[in-house]
Amino acid sequence: MQSKDLTCTEEVRVRFNETDPLGIVWHGHYIVYFEDGREAFGRQHGLTYLDIQKAGFVTPIVKSTCEHFLPLKYGETFNIVTTFVNSVSAKLIYKYEIFNQNNQLVCSGETIQVFLDSENNLCLYNPEFFQTWKDKMGL
């Protein structure tokens, strides 16, 4: 069975408050950029945090990784490419690649989120709304 990749690309501009005194993006902001990518992905593909909350669930991050290759600087634009990784487990797995305005890979990473119900119980199976979304997306 061939996997179908769902991706989203979001263009962002480095803001002054995200940089250190040298004008280079502070490393901790890349995790925030990943969040920007997840938000854009959700809007594009119909899986926003509001959709998840409306269904009665929250999705805390249980793992995040980030590898840095090149710096971003104040005023530059960059693209965040967010890819949903399909899994049989009740998880949201996203991979990220950040490319600078010269299309060079700046950073890559991954986050894993789990589903908790309204009583903060870990869901071992895909919630019905999530399985419906996956079916709709052909996953």
Key descriptive features of the protein:
single chain, 139 residues, alpha+beta, 24% helix
Characterization of the model:
It contains three helices and five strands. The protein is elongated, with a radius of gyration of 16 Å. A five-stranded antiparallel beta sheet has the order 1-3-4-5-2, covered by helices on one side. By secondary structure, it is α+β, with helices and mostly antiparallel strands. Pfam families: 4HBT_2. This is Acyl-CoA thioesterase. Belongs to the 4-hydroxybenzoyl-CoA thioesterase family. It comes from Chryseobacterium formosus. Keywords: Hydrolase.
Architecture blueprint of SSEs:
Elements: E1 6-13, H1 29-45, H2 49-54, E2 61-68, E3 77-85, E4 91-100, E5 105-114, H3 128-137
Antiparallel strand pairs: 1-3, 2-5, 3-4, 4-5
- Largest sheet, if any? 5 strands, antiparallel
Helix and strand composition category: alpha+beta
**Which regions contain 5 or more consecutive residues with pLDDT less than 50?**
none
- Strand order across the largest sheet: 1-3-4-5-2
How large a portion of the residues is in β-strands, by DSSP E?
Answer: 25-35%
Helix content: 10-25%
Gap between N and C termini: 10 Å
Shape: elongated
Helix-strand sequence? EHHEEEEH
Average pLDDT over all residues:
95
- From the alpha-carbon coordinates, what is the Rg to the nearest angstrom? 16 Å
Strands, total number: 5
Our count of helices gives: 3
